[in-house]
Amino acid sequence: MDAKTFDAKTLLDSLFDNGILFESGVDGLYGRSGTFEEVIERFEGIVLKVGGPDKATRIHFPPGMARAALEKTGYMKSFPQLAGCVHSFMGDERDHARLLGMMESGEDWTQMQEATEVAMTPAACYPLYPTVARQGPVPAEGLLYELSSYCFRHEPSKDPARMQLFRQREYIQIGTAVQVQAFQKSWMERGRRIVEDLDLPCEIEVANDPFFGRTGKMMANSQRDQALKFELLIPVTSIEKPTACLSFNNHQDHFGQSWGIRFADGTSCHSGCVGFGLERVALALFRHHGPDVATWPVKVRHALWGA
Amino acid sequence: MIDRIRTLLAQNPMIPIDFGALSDNANLYDAGLTSFASVQMMLAIEEEFDIEFPEQMLTRRTFSSIASIAAAISELTAEQV
């Protein structure tokens, strides 16, 4: 992996050639090598160590969540193009025969499936809000969670840093506007330090979510105007357009309002999260330090493996 | 034009704001306008006035008050506020 050549296709081919990622036949769905996974585990170890003193409650959600919860959160208003709902066959023997006939003749058999109550989790924190809402009023000191989940976004691409199924590790603060702002600021500092210790070039910039369509443009402008989202960018497949590997998000009271997450006095809670794109960080490491982890700089090996 | 905007917005159930209590220059975000509601507002205005806001006008500022909305519409339609 020549550090001078930055393009998506070269990086993807090199990852396949070096047995770091494995093709599945679908862009954005890849197998991961043991070494790739070990890098992710070690990186998560660093994140957990840095976040440890905050004593967050740890929850691991599966990559599927209640479709009703996704709807209630307003995901289809903002990101209909990224959402994935799980469909299954629910017919009888007659329908089954019809389905097989359609497959045989090359027709679109998927219309024989119906939507299940499961949607793919689009971000690690989405399944959390209904869970918190069920617990009753939020204590004055707020709530802090540490989450991990495989996430799905429908955006097939040859860019290895844009996978359809990828993992996020997140810390979520639920509390007052001030608590959320302090949390966001603290993780921007801590996140930068973690990445710099891995000898990766990075910058933190104001960002916006990929809201859908022209109306989304307005949402994106509004998000930028208010500086609600920041991303830590590392060049992975392009120097001009570096990849967002960490994001720091202030949701204001969007989720608090959607889910009725309130303090005992009835005021809506604010929330914010820091998300670590685990595959993206691993890709950045392989991109900058080479396919063989044994030859990575001592500083980086020390940070990850502690020796 | 101001009255037409007020009537249009007051009728829209997706925009839960009491426009009758607000002056033309009152900040709609301070009055509780959410990002989602501001998008609904933009779509309703485009349809009513048969216009399409160019990208550079799709900002928080454009939709921050009834007066600023009217100014944006008149810029696009050359109609006097």
Describe the structure.
The complex is a heterodimer of chains A (307) and B (81). Chain A has 307 residues and is an alpha+beta fold. Chain A folds into two domains: 8-84 and 122-305, Bira Bifunctional Protein, Domain 2 (BirA Bifunctional Protein, domain 2); 86-119, no CATH class. Chain A contains eleven helices and twelve strands. In chain A, β1 and β2 form a beta hairpin. In chain A, α2 crosses α10 (278-289). The longest helix of chain A has 21 residues, at 177-197. With 81 residues, chain B is mainly α. Chain B has one domain: Non-ribosomal Peptide Synthetase Peptidyl Carrier Protein, Chain A (Orthogonal Bundle). Chain B contains three helices and no strands. The termini of chain B are close together. The model of chain B has no long low-confidence stretch (mean pLDDT 87). At the A-B interface, α8 of A face α2 of B.
Defining key terms:
heterodimer, A: 307 residues, alpha+beta, 7-stranded mixed β-sheet, 3-stranded antiparallel β-sheet, 11 helices, B: 81 residues, mainly alpha, Non-ribosomal Peptide Synthetase Peptidyl Carrier Protein, Chain A
Termini separation of chain A = 24 Å
CATH superfamily of chain B: ACP-like
The tally of strands of chain A reads: 12
Would you tell me the structural class of the helices and strands of chain A?
Answer: alpha+beta
Give the fraction of residues assigned to helices of chain B: 40-55%
* Total tally of structural domains of chain A: 2
Shape of chain B: globular
> In CATH terms, what is the architecture of chain B?
Orthogonal Bundle
Number of helical elements of chain B: 3
- CATH superfamily placement of the largest domain in chain A: Bira Bifunctional Protein, Domain 2
Structural class of chain B: mainly alpha
User: What is the beta-strand fraction of chain B?
Assistant: under 5%
Radius of gyration of chain A, in Å, reads 21 Å
Helix content of chain A: 25-40%
